[in-house]
Amino acid sequence: MSSFIKSLAIAAATSTVLITSAVAQDVPPTSDVADHHAVTDALIRFTNGMDTDNGALIASAFAEAGIADFTPAAARVGMQFPVLEGRENIVSALVPFASSFTTSHSVTNARVDVQGDTTTLYALVEAQHLPTDDGSRNFMMMNQYRIDLVREGDQWVMSRMTIDNLWSEGDLAVMTGG
């Protein structure tokens, strides 16, 4: 048996032990699959709305009195960005801001904790920003999202979204219009 195949066998055995260990601890699920999907869909609607400059899609992700707080992420990279309050204010501020870039957001590591008709979503979102007229420059951020959501009818909407930055790289002037 080659050393590569032996390494794979050891990794598989270790993974099985780790999975079995986690199950043995009787860690309860934080929500059912339908709720998990519906909750994460609010974040996907928001990020897709940002990537496509679609104000209606961004609006669909927020409660009427929703709050979008980018201040921790902005401060970490040396920018200032106000806390946005109210669905209409969020959309009217973000659509022009987002339309000055070509962006792509990737959502991962979503953790949902449903408590009746409220929930908290934790996720990592990588955001790539390029000036619309210059694809040679970019600014990338890996952000940690903490989102409080409420159930409105058959969908979840964000009541408060707080974004903090874990790391960034590239040309910050892309974000500041320079």
Automatic annotation (TrEMBL):
It holds the Pfam family SnoaL_4. Residues 33-162 form the SnoaL-like domain. InterPro entries: NTF2-like_dom_sf, SnoaL-like. Keywords: Signal. Residues 1-24 form the signal peptide. It comes from the Bacteria. This is SnoaL-like domain-containing protein. It comes from Marivita hallyeonensis.
